[in-house]
Every structure is written in structure tokens, then in C-alpha cells.
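Risk mitigation, structural track. In case the binding assays with pyridoxal-5'-phosphate fail to produce interpretable data, a predicted complex structure has been prepared as a fallback.
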Amino acid sequence: MTIYNFCAGPAMLPADVMQQAQKEMLDWQGLGRSVMEISHRSKEYIALAEQAEQDLRDLLAIPDNYKVLFSHGGGRGQFAAVPMNLRGRGETADFLTTGSWSQDAFDEASKYLSSHLVSKTAVKEGLSFVPSITADMVNPKAAYFHYCSNETVDGIEVSDVPETGEVPVVVDMSSNILSKPLDISKFGVIYAGAQKNIGPSGLAVVIVRDDLLDYAMTETPSFMHYQTIAKFNSMYNTPPTYSWYLAGLVFKWLKAQGGLEKIAAVNTQKAELLYQCIDESDFYINKVHPDFRSKMNVTFHLPNTDLDGVFLQEAEAEGLVALKGHRKVGGMRASIYNAMPLEGVVALTNFMGDFARRNK
Ligand SMILES: *Cc1c(COP(=O)(O)O)cnc(C)c1O
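Fallback model:
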């Protein structure tokens, strides 16, 4: 039976990538060793690292005045690294909070500076939506403006980049980076924990505009210090080498799919199919305004929580696994990142349709 893994993170990786990693596990590039068993300073590894960065730059069209850092500590590491690295720009930072992750980023930043809430998710006619941010709402003296482009737990995606005037925009893109093309020049810092759309957990990819490298607090640990990481090409300390290798395979896979325009079209098709199934069912409920529905994490509730257990059990018996919603919101969540094939979503919607008919 085919297993379709809807886990929010660590999430499934493309089957082709996993097969290549398996094939190369014991003998990478004829070295008679695994890539995880060689020095990060070897010429072979350095070539891999540089290629991965180049492929990421190509995919996202990252301009030359941005550094790409392969850092430790996942997404939450950046919740602390961002305020520590930008504290020199100001005593306060402005936040848009749209759900669980941006709230946690807000709280963590408060240890290093004064976090200020500019706006947050609101509810109109029972549907969650995210108010637009315009420059007049932002404190021009703020060190930065932070938001999360995709709330993994809540299933809320923000597509418009906030208008902040001169204040650099910092975005947590952990769960929707590489899901569609992006205008990098609108951002000061983009960061993402790897385990949703990039590779294994532990790694964070940080894309930072180079004029922002000079503002760190002196207490910033060296391995989290953007300027230091950049100076050492992300090898100030030993990087998460195997995660970097797998990320590189994922970038190559994305290029082979035709790049981000192509993957975005597939992602739209997958999400539309699933939301259509929910909307037409008279059974499943999604409470996010259509403009802010996530294309990566589709959340929904059954009409009655007593059915949750059976739904999950029957889904699992069909090979549809890890659909349980986050404990903070309950219900169900189908995470359909880049690696989820269209067939997985078709299988899920077939099951959901059938389950609804039988349990109405
Ligand atoms: C998963 C996630 C994180 C946390 O990542 P960790 O690697 O567990 O620290 C942060 N932000 C978002 C949006 C996430 O989805």
C-alpha cells in the first residue's frame, strides 16, 4: 500500500531524493564513505555546499547583495538570532501576529528588545483574516518588522508583503519557502527551519541583506552571529552537513521539476482540490477566509469531535497518515508541501468524500 504522509514537520521529502540518499548512503562520490562521514573542509564537501547555495540562489533568484546562511538551530533558533543580530538598529521591533508561530517569535524577541504588536489575525463572519499592514502603522525607529508568511499550526498564509517604509521586513518562511516564486528584494531577512520544505530538521536557511550584518548585540553567540556565519561561509563551526547535503538534493529536485513557477502551479492545484472537497461537503469545516487559506497546511474540523478518532483510524488504514491537527487547534491538518504528490491529495479527497457520505 502506498503511504501518503501529511505530517506538518518533520515532513515527507521527495521520494526521488530519499532514493538517491539511500543509494549514496555508504559510498558518496566513490569515496567509500558516507557524505556524513567526511570533513566539512574537504574539497568534495565544499563543492557540495557551494552547489547547494547556488541552486537555492537560482531557484529564488536571490540578488547578490543577500547572503545565504546555513545555520544551526531550526526555526526557533532564529526567533532569538533575529533580535540579537538586529538589536543594534533599535530598542523595539514591530510584529504582525497571525497564529501560534509568530506569537512565539514575538515572545522570544521580548527577551532581547521590546516587542510591539502592530496587528494580528481577526475574525469576521466566523472567518479568520489578516489585516493589511501599511507604512503608517509601523514605527520608523523599529529595528525590524516581523511576520510569519505561513502559520503551520493554524493554516493561515499571508501572501502580501507588509508595507513598512524603511523598516526591514523579517519573515519566518519555515513552512512555505520554495512553494512559489518570491521577490527577495522586499525583505531584510528571510529564515526557515528546514524540516517542512527543505530537508531534515536542525538546519535553518537564512537569507539576509548584507547591510543588516552590522547590528548584532556583542553578547550574540558566535555561531548565531550572522556576520560571523557569513564570513566563514556557514562553517564557523561544523555545519549540519548531512542536512545540508539533503537540502542540496531537494534544490536539485526542485530544479528538475521546472523551478518554483511549476511547483507553485502544482501546489495551487493540490490546495484547490482539498479546499473544494471541504467546501462542497457540508460536513468538513475550515474557518480561514479564502484569501488567507494556506496552500501548505490545510486545517479542517469534522462536524463533531467524537468522529475525530474514527476518521484518523480509517484514514491510516488507507495509508493516509499524520492528519491529526495540532493540539492547540484540534481537528485535522493535511500538510501538503512541495514533496506531496498530487495523487496523495486525490487519495485524501476520495477518502474524505466517502467518509462524509457514511457519517452525515
Ligand atoms: C516548524 C516551524 C518553526 C519551528 O521550527 P523548529 O525547527 O522546530 O525550531 C518555526 N516557525 C514556523 C512557521 C514553523 O512551521
